[in-house]
Amino acid sequence: MLIDSHCHLDASxxxxxxxxxxxxxxxxxxxxxxxxxITAATFDLTLAMRERYGCAVALGLHPIYLAxxxxxxxAQLDDALSRHAPVAVGEIGLDFFVPGLDAARQVALFEAQxxxxxxxxxxxxxxxxxxxxxxxxxxxxxxxxxxxAHAFNGxxxxxxxxxxxxxxxxxxxxxxxxxxxxxxRLAAELPLEAIVLETDSPDIAPAWLAGPxxxxxxxxxxxxIAAVLAELRGLGVDEVAAATVANTHAxxxxxxxxxx
Length: 260
What we know:
Elements: E1 2-4, H1 18-27, E2 30-36, H2 43-53, E3 56-59, H3 71-84, E4 88-93, H4 103-119, E5 124-127, H5 132-142, E6 147-150, H6 156-164, E7 167-171, H7 181-189, E8 195-197, H8 222-233, H9 237-251, H10 253-259
Parallel strand pairs: 1-2, 2-3, 3-4, 4-5, 5-6, 6-7, 7-8
Helix pairs in contact: 8-9, 9-10
């Protein structure tokens, strides 16, 4: 059995066949999905994934959607964290890859959400694209209850710093490409207890969906992603599955209670 620690099942790409996507995931042995929100406007849709499919949810304001966030959305998030018992605050963080995103506003939003995570005693799911060191800076400042560094692609030194702060590192589709040498080396060499598995579906398609044309990613691809990790580490798939499930539960303690 596996946990997809990061899946946007609420995304519009799944509107036509979401029930079938959920069914395929369970048939493939993916026992749980963690669905992080991206904007306040989608909180209800994210929460609907829990009601309809039994998913775990996280609530947060994603840095890429900066233009959609308003100051009052932080109060809305605060209220939602109190009323809806998510497993984490997320997806939050910093993105210095997408052009045109105001860095100072991103930082202010990130810090405000880290403060909320502290107040609600929740872990966080962090977006760290081209921003690992900056994210680490603010995690050291606010000292939240750990969480997951989503789609990790940093250095070994950065990985070790996240681990010191109580974080697990998310590995998924990028690890399946033979050219992703740094990510594959980290997946092979990091302590197994550092790693959680994710699809980030419908995004970050694994190598076998790359096309052309690129096909949509979905949670049912997670067993093949787990098999890649097992091969890189010279382990059995069952051992990798058991370890990454335990790691996800350690990163998100409320999820462990849901799954028990």
